[in-house]
Design a protein that fits this description.
The complex is a heterodimer of chains A (408) and B (275). Chain A is α/β, with parallel strands linked by helices. Chain A has a single domain, classed as Rossmann fold. Chain A is built from eleven helices and 14 strands. In chain A, the strands form three sheets. In chain A, strands 8-5-9-10-4-11-12-13-14 form a nine-stranded mixed β-sheet, with helices on both faces. A three-stranded antiparallel β-sheet of chain A has the order 1-2-3, with no helix packed on it. Chain B is an alpha/beta fold and 275 residues long. Chain B has a single domain, classed as 3-Layer(aba) Sandwich (Rossmann fold), CATH 3.40.50. Chain B contains nine helices and nine strands. Chain B has a nine-stranded mixed β-sheet, sandwiched between helices. The chains are: A alpha/beta (408), B alpha/beta (275). Chains A and B meet through helix 8, helix 9 and helix 10 of A and helix 2, helix 3, helix 4, helix 5 and helix 7 of B.
């Protein structure tokens, strides 16, 4: 949904009267409150968490509702699958509805492997407080009162983290308890169980994709995620997880041939998916085995039809595994695309050298190294010196154009 | 509307030349901010605007334009703006319902082979309607303008690059030559320029052919030295003026930074981040 928060709860026909002025009170965003969502600071988009806090930070606070996150799979699909599971687990914990589609594993199997949430941590602490390490003895804190005013400040973290917590933490070493999992409403789409009805009308799209799109649309209409539908009492978010689209099991030959016969099938599907999501309260994560797709032009057009795109490059099996530079990490993360939503600028990340690692219990994304410090905010040569130089230049009779920074 | 860009291009909403085909392209960067510029520019210039939005939804353009000081919903109600929302139209084609009420403009999705004739007919009807409906007492609008956000979406959806080229040619004949209006189109490529391998289907080929047709190109690409937070890329502005004694081209290169409500353009190396 590319609509700002304030239009979410209303039918779109009411918009003209509301948006006649650019002066809007921020308080209107309180109209809609779905658990597990928050409005974006920058553009008022409704955001949901991906479940990985550092990924949320990277995407500008979270995934905007109505958008698609494309994950280019790593070579063995282990880490991309983990992010997908994080995304679904976050949905379970926030009581969102899920839609899981896969052609390889049964979606129920994917759901059984969701990581266990660390729930007590979330319930007990206020967002400003940092979770204290359990091994830390309380009395040692009482004893040391030198820097008492700093004791409530958050600890310095090397991992990226959003300032306020609306995502949850998960323990990937444990599975989620079945009773938590079954509380969430889940729609699954397992391709072998869906007989593809042949219809001659779809020439641009494969049968498997059009069946998937159709069943997704049915769920959206039936369960009332449609924005055009009259507002029911409570609104909820539909989280769509599509696993390994474009692989051979979907009947697609993108990944096996240099010159695929269904060249535009996946792109057309993603276009339809974007159209569906923009008009509903749903958000999707799609994984694609991009390392199998040889055609870069094709991959570029697929990326552009998604909103966010990240690529995982695992070190597993590559010679980088033994490189001392990367000894702390399991792979590199490339940000391919960040969305433009309802604003001219996009939230560019600070830097693009990012790496991920899988700790014993947690998946995190960290900076590989700091970028060179070139920015408009950094203090450098004082402006007075520049002005002095400009005066000398004008005294010499050279150009006296009023440009601030450049006067040779 | 970015005033800095207006002064670079030497135009303003009060005085601009007609009959131009402006091609906006990008490579490893995003040029859609220029589309927003042209949309607000021509709406302020009181032109009749036909906007084919294939990549984003109406809400997106509406909220960005609001920040740039133009109200799209009002313009649509007044009849100044004709907005084709490709995403919305495509759903009825991709997931056929019993009662098909969608317009025919996106029918190429059903079968891309016949080309973009229906889309062209939509454009022709909407730009020529402006001249015929004047007598109804509605406001009179200036020359028609056609804006297309992302021709490369058409390629992704399976339309032949030749068919896209036919479409642009027909539009140019109708809008630029016949009605002395303007046309702005965006083509997005990725990968380096040297990767072009004679592929007659790809966006590279389309970009080359369109560059040949147009009168002004704005080519946006990322910095050759890599990603920077404070300089978002560079724009190559290239005029191709047809004078009496043959063609005359002029090129200028600027770096740019997109802000919340506009963009700033500066000569290479003169960003406030490095000076």
């Amino acid at each position: 949904m590319a609509a700002p928060v304030n239009s979410v709860g209303k039918p779109s026909a009411e918009r003209p009267q509301i948006n006649c002025t650019s002066f809007q009170k921020k308080t209107r965003s309180k109209l809609i409150s779905i658990p597990g969502t928050r409005p974006s600071v920058q553009n008022g988009q409704l955001l949901v968490s991906t479940g990985v806090t550092s990924l949320d930070y990277l995407l500008g606070g979270g995934l905007a509702v109505g958008t698609v996150l494309l994950i280019e799979e790593d070579r063995y699909d282990s880490y991309s699958r983990m992010i997908l599971k994080y995304f679904l687990a976050e949905g379970v914990v926030c009581r969102h509805e899920l839609f899981v589609a896969s052609a390889q594993d049964n979606p129920d199997d994917i759901l059984q492997e969701l990581p266990a949430p660390i729930l007590d941590d979330v319930a007990m602490h206020k967002p400003v407080e940092q979770p204290r390490l359990p091994c830390e003895p309380q009395d040692s804190l009482d004893a040391m009162k030198i820097a008492w005013r700093y004791q409530n400040l958050p600890k310095v973290q090397s991992a990226l983290a959003s300032s306020s917590r609306f995502g949850h933490y998960y323990d990937v070493s444990k599975m989620m308890e079945p009773e938590i999992r079954q509380a969430a409403k889940c729609h699954s789409f397992y391709l072998p169980e869906h007989p593809t009805q042949s219809s001659a009308t779809h020439s641009a799209m494969l049968e498997s994709y059009s069946t998937l799109l159709k069943s997704l649309q049915e769920v959206i209409h039936r369960e009332g995620f449609d924005l055009a539908a009259p507002m029911s009492k409570s609104r909820n978010i539909l989280r769509v997880g599509l696993h390994s689209l474009g692989s051979a099991l979907w009947g697609d030959d993108l990944s096996c041939q240099d010159n695929p016969t269904h060249r535009h099938a996946l792109a057309t599907f993603l276009y339809g998916l974007r159209a569906l999501l923009r008009s509903s309260l749903s958000v999707a994560v799609v994984t694609i085995p991009s390392h199998l797709i040889q055609d870069r032009t094709l991959m570029g057009s697929i990326t552009r039809l998604c909103d966010n795109a990240i690529a995982l490059e695992s070190f597993k099996g590559s010679e980088r595994e033994t490189n001392p530079l990367y000894k702390d990490y399991h792979g590199l993360l490339h940000v391919r695309q960040v969305p433009h939503l309802n604003c001219l600028t996009n939230q560019l990340p600070d830097h693009k050298d990012l790496a991920f690692k899988l700790k014993r219990k947690q998946f995190t994304i960290e900076r590989l190294h700091l970028p060179p410090d070139l920015s408009e905010t950094v203090s450098r040569v004082s402006r007075g010196e520049l002005a002095g130089a400009a005066m000398v230049a004008s005294a010499c009779g050279s150009s006296t154009s009023g440009t601030k920074h450049l006067d040779f | 509307m970015f005033t800095e860009l207006n002064s670079i291009l030497n135009t303003s909403p009060e005085s601009f030349s007609g009959g131009d085909f402006i091609l906006v392209s990008d490579r490893q960067s995003d040029a859609s901010f220029l589309i927003h510029h042209f949309l607000s520019f021509y709406l302020r210039a009181q032109c009749k605007v036909c906007f084919l939005s294939l990549a984003q939804s109406f809400n997106h353009y509406s909220s960005v334009s609001q920040r740039l000081g133009v109200n799209l919903t009002q313009a649509k109600d007044k009849g100044q703006l004709i907005f084709l929302e490709g995403l919305k139209e495509s759903l009825s084609v991709l997931i056929p319902q019993a009662a098909d009420t969608g317009s025919q403009a996106m029918s190429f999705l059903r079968n891309p082979a016949p080309g973009l004739q229906s889309l062209y007919e939509f454009v022709r009807d909407s730009v020529t309607a402006s001249s015929s409906s004047v007598e109804e007492g509605t406001e009179e609008w200036g020359p028609p303008v056609l804006l297309v956000d992302d021709l490369s979406v058409l390629l992704s959806l399976g339309v032949n690059a030749g068919a896209v080229l036919d479409f642009t040619h027909y539009c140019r004949a109708a809008v630029c030559s016949q009605l002395q209006g303007n046309m702005v189109m965006l083509v997005r490529c990725d990968g380096g320029e040297e990767e072009y391998d004679g592929d007659v289907e790809g966006p590279e080929w389309l970009l080359r052919c369109l560059t040949h047709q147009c009168s002004l190109t704005l080519h946006v690409h990322g910095l050759p030295t890599g990603y920077c937070r404070d300089i978002h890329g560079q724009v190559e502005v290239c005029w191709r003026r047809r004078r009496g004694d043959g063609q005359h081209t002029q090129k200028k290169l600027f770096q740019y930074k997109v802000h919340d409500k506009g963009a700033s353009f500066f000569a290479r190396g003169t960003s406030s981040a490095v000076l």
